[in-house]
Design goal:
The protein is of the alpha/beta class and 165 residues long. Helices cover 40% and strands 19% of the residues.
Length: 165
């Protein structure tokens, strides 16, 4: 696809282990700005993920009801290399709190240093999902908490299977 035709595209990268309703909300809201969103599931072999890359991709697709404007993909290595490969240089990042800012600020400038064409768009998480993050969800489930309403139904089901709730 010609890069000119991809100007209305962005990449929303993350581990999504697992995807939460906060992630889903951000993706849905970003579709008011972008024609298409590439949800790029990061495959970090050094990270001990609860779900495989394919499981994470499948849960995202099901949660978004296979929305034709959302492409779920995966990548390994640097985001800038993935972005160059697919010809999209706009990255969407969610921000929950001031604590996210420092990390995101550093990542944005590292990406810009590696590829001057990279642009990052920050979108604030919806207030309803301000406290929701994947590691907190996993910790809550492992402790026996009910995370109904914080994750898509498919994720709740898969978490129950993995953790044997």
């Amino acid at each position: 696809m010609d890069i000119q035709k991809k100007r209305g595209f962005c990449i929303y990268p993350g581990s999504f282990d697992p995807v939460t309703n906060g992630h889903i909300n951000l993706i849905e809201r970003s579709l008011h700005i972008f024609d298409k969103v590439i949800v790029a599931v990061a495959n970090n072999p050094d990270k001990n993920s609860l779900f495989s890359v394919n499981e994470r991709k499948e849960m995202i697709e099901i949660a978004l009801e296979k929305n034709e404007r959302v492409i779920v993909d995966s990548f390994e290595g640097l985001l800038v290399d993935y972005a160059k490969k697919i010809g999209i240089h706009t990255v969407l990042r969610g921000m929950r709190a001031a604590s996210d800012f420092e990390y995101e600020f550093e990542m944005t400038f590292m990406n810009r240093k590696l590829d001057r064409n990279m642009e990052t768009i920050f979108m604030m998480t919806g207030l309803r999902w301000f406290f929701v993050h994947s590691s907190g969800i996993k910790a809550a489930v492992k402790a026996g908490a009910d995370v109904t309403g914080l994750v898509p139904d498919i994720v709740f089901k898969k978490l129950a299977e993995k953790v044997k709730m």
